[in-house]
Amino acid sequence: HVQLVESGGGLVQPGGSLRLSCVASGFTVNPKCMGWFRQAPGKEREGVAGIDTDGTTGYADSVQGRFTISRDNAKNTVYLRMNSLKSEDTAVYYCAAGIAWYDYWGQGTQVTV
After folding, report:
1. Largest CB tally within 10 Å, which of 26, 27, 82, 87?
2. Average pLDDT of each block of 10 consecutive residues along the chain (113 residues)?
């Protein structure tokens, strides 16, 4: 069965950096869509960044220029490098992946700024 496991969250000072990782297992082919979402207390889950198997990326306006998404297709792993973190980036960050869309989700990792 498909499983997504995130790591790398934690507590960081404003202006600091973190890198999140997510390993996807159980896929028979590389998932086309891999990305990161987040949910802050009292708010709806929102998309942060996504990346296709060909490296095409997309970012939320709020993180453009500060966050960088990347992936290692050989390892079915997606990363999120977060720089210049702000207090408003505090949230639970979820990894998601799927063949055609984000069908599978990780348990989430807390990022507190």
Report:
1. 82
2. 95 98 93 96 96 95 98 95 98 95 96 98
